[in-house]
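Deliverable D4.2, example record:
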Amino acid sequence: MADHFPTVGVEEEYFLVDAAQRTVVAAAPRVLARAEPVLGGLVTGEASRYQVEGKTPPCGTLGELREELRRVRSAVVAAAADEGARPVACGTPLLGMRAPIPLNGGAHYRAQLATFRSLYDTFAFCGLHVHVQVPDRDHAVLVSNHLRPWLPVLVAMAANSPFWEERDSGYCSWRTLGATRWPVAGPPPYFSSAAHYDTLASALRETGATLGERSLYWDVRPCAHLPTLEIRAMDAATSVEEAAVFAVLVRALVVRALERVRRGDPGPAMDEALLRAAYWRCARDGLTGHSLDPRTHRLVPTSHQVRQLLAHARPALAEHGELPQVTAVLRRLFAHGGGAERQRSVHARAGSLADVVDDLADRTAASPRQWRRAPSPVGGPGGQGSSARSGRSDSSS
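Output generated by the structure prediction step:
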């Protein structure tokens, strides 16, 4: 096994839901107070008090990353249970979100709210953020260029947010649409160097479109204080296994990109308009739809694009001994569907969004259900009234 591979770390966001009502609950301050003595800086708050974020330390192997994710999740599950809540790893809240959402009171978020105003009213999204070690910022931005054409495929592969405002959105990743409303978000520009990146970031800050590095919400961005590249295009993954596999697959893409950068290849300059169109298509249709081939500019089955991504990443995965595990998870996704398909399947079978929340919470905790769901009142959270109000069948696609 190669010992020169870059480390990989994960940040994943969870919604907190009331264990009885299945609605999102503003319990983050209380849950953090219980989790921080166990996890220290590996658990933090997010923009809203509906959410907390778990982090792993830098990891060398898939097995190590998987165990760290389990350790963090177990501590968050226990802390939430003490407050009558459960963490749920998915891209959007299913029940109970009301605008404006309750924000954390830190100075950073107060400044953000003053600048971005009503964009924060419904800013409740959970993502999977992968941090991969790179030599320096110049390498980081050129690796970003190489990753840009693959980002829509990552969006589709990890799509896990079909429901929004208690109905089916018609998208597999509504989080992708919601997150890209910000002035600096979504696929990153094409950069010639770290100096180019810094010049653009400075100009954007001058316009007021960002308040600094923390509000550059591009889906690939170099870290300001560490030699890492952050890839943030994916919805939060419900299972530990999928989160870990998606992360090492991203690392393999970074390894392949670094090989090309070292040969003097600055990356393919995919047109930004086409890239955004590819994002939209993959967010709408997910793993079972079609996506834009960046070479031919033609629609092809997204499953074909995922196989191409795997073929491209294969040498790095094989060198690090991760190819069998990654291949097995992708085969399961092809056979049974990804996160969005699972949510819709549970809803179609059970008829209630509360059942979807229970399934997500169980999968997030990776443990058997500890209680049965009490019947929801008609018209209440997840009850018949939720679907009736939507004007669209919750099981539509």
